[in-house]
Amino acid sequence: MTDYWFVPKSYGYGATPVTWQGWAVTLAAVAILVGSTLLMVVLPAASHSGPSFPVVLVWAALQAVVVGALLAITRAKTDGAWRWRWGGKS
User: Fold this and answer.
1) Is there a domain that residue 42 lies in?
2) Mean confidence (pLDDT) of the chain
3) Distance (Å, rounded) from C-alpha 11 to C-alpha 84?
4) In-domain check, residue 40
5) Packing angle of the helix pair 53-76, 20-46 (nearest 10 deg)
6) How far is residue 21 from each of residues 4, 25, 68, 70, 71, measured CA to CA in Å?
7) Contact 25/31 with Cβ under 8 angstroms?
8) Mean pLDDT of 48-64
9) What pTM was computed for the model?
10) Number of structural domains in the chain
11) Structural domain containing residue 30
12) Phi (first) and psi of residue 20, to 5 degrees
């Protein structure tokens, strides 16, 4: 069994999940990002006012932490280096 959860993309920059762990991390990050964004839209709409500035700052910080963690995990668990690829084998 491999220790890598992601493989480098064939075209472009980055990596793609290839194991259930990679997909789980990716889907969890997407769920947190989408869920927190929906909360930012739905909860203030119920009170007919926009979100307060501190709430927006906390939301933005959460988004940054989740994306940063996803990138760090993806980079650490990728089989190979991240670089621009044009579809070749290496």
Assistant:
1) yes
2) 88
3) 7
4) yes
5) 170
6) 9, 6, 18, 12, 14
7) no
8) 86
9) 0.83
10) 1
11) 19-76
12) -65, -30
